[in-house]
């Protein structure tokens, strides 16, 4: 406690430099805390279960060269061939999920409504849809061949049944009794019975606020934007992808075929999130290094200026540990001031970001962890200069006057 007065006196004499380090530490905490929340949120988002067998799925699209191309006939012939290929577990024609492209709809629990829709993504597919995507059916049944209709968007066809994800079922029917209930499109009175519920499917836009609210309708749609979704047996994905491209081109050479792995498409979708994680991680590392460097520089500067005082204290019997403790305590006071300022700044900054950019809230626990880490880095940065100060001999300090 006797060291506090000289420490406070020394800090007051160097108040500008001490304040700058404290402010730098505080700003670093504010930035690091909020960056950490963003990084955690992005990592958790990428790591979420998709409800789809991503690592086993291959997708294929084709663009016909000839005009008046019969897509529905091509779908039938292609799927018959694909399902016979070695290594193929299941195949369907549907828009592939998790790729950033698709369509959405608004659903209601009563007819002729136009306000208060429950939003969700929509897919069409045949009786192999659930199996091809590798989804888990938790209630009801899958589509059967008799349920499937061949249609186009311009035909005015409307489904009379659907399969929904558990998340969408819970949103539509909070009482948990979605199976067998009817849902409706906006302003329509055509009932669509929920015949099955799957555990999960994030839909086409995993970063959307409606991700996971997905509905599936029993139809093969005549449109150029649909994929063949092919689930390979475990370990056969690459072989199936190569064979799929060859056989599709061989069956009908009058078209352009593109084959992709669903995992690659998902990686491209999350490319922005991964880039943000890398950039923010780099910023956090750089700021932490700069703060540590500033603390080391300031402590070394102060030690150089105080060699005479250190020598006098050593001559009067001060131990090396007492000298080291003096500078560590001095740094502790600066760090504590910076941490207090940074904690307040982090919360204020987070509230602004949350209101303007929908950033996740910054928990106090995360702020506390970041503060402890920066606190430890601050003390570690001051440790080596403090040990150096303890090794200054009284004779060297005297000769330096």
TrEMBL record:
The keyword Lipoprotein does not apply. Residues 30-245 form the MacB-like periplasmic core domain. The chain crosses the membrane at residues 283-305, 326-349, 361-387. Keywords: Cell membrane, Membrane, Transmembrane, Transmembrane helix. It is found in: Cell membrane. Residues 284-394 form the ABC3 transporter permease C-terminal domain. It holds the Pfam family FtsX. Belongs to the ABC-4 integral membrane protein family. This is ABC transporter permease. It comes from Microbulbifer taiwanensis.
